[in-house]
């Protein structure tokens, strides 16, 4: 079995260029999206407002 770790001229261990987990590279490339409210919150607020308006009448 081949080892991934090698030593340089000074004897220090060099880490491999590729990650141990191949999915890590994909995760590092991904960027976070906007943290805004979703349509779900708008619908819920609308439902609450409608319920309050109907209860007042």
Account of the 3D structure:
Helix content is 44%, strand content 7%. The chain has 2 helices and 2 strands; from the N terminus they run ββαα. Strands 1-2 form a two-stranded antiparallel ribbon. The mean pLDDT is 79.
Structural class: mainly alpha
Strand content: 5-15%
What would you call the shape? rod-shaped
Total E-strand runs: 2
Order of helices and strands: EEHH
> What percent of the residues sit in helical stretches (DSSP H or I)?
40-55%
How much is the average pLDDT? Answer: 79
Summarize the structure.
This protein is mainly α and 57 residues long.
Question: Which terms summarize this structure?
Answer:
single chain, mainly alpha
Fold topology:
Layout: E1 6-7, E2 13-14, H1 23-29, H2 39-56
């Amino acid at each position: 079995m081949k080892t991934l770790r090698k030593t340089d001229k000074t004897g220090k261990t060099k880490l491999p260029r590729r990650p141990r987990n191949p999915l890590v590279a994909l995760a590092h490339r991904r960027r976070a999206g906007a943290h805004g409210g979703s349509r779900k919150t708008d619908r819920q607020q609308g439902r609450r407002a409608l319920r309050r308006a109907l209860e007042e009448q």
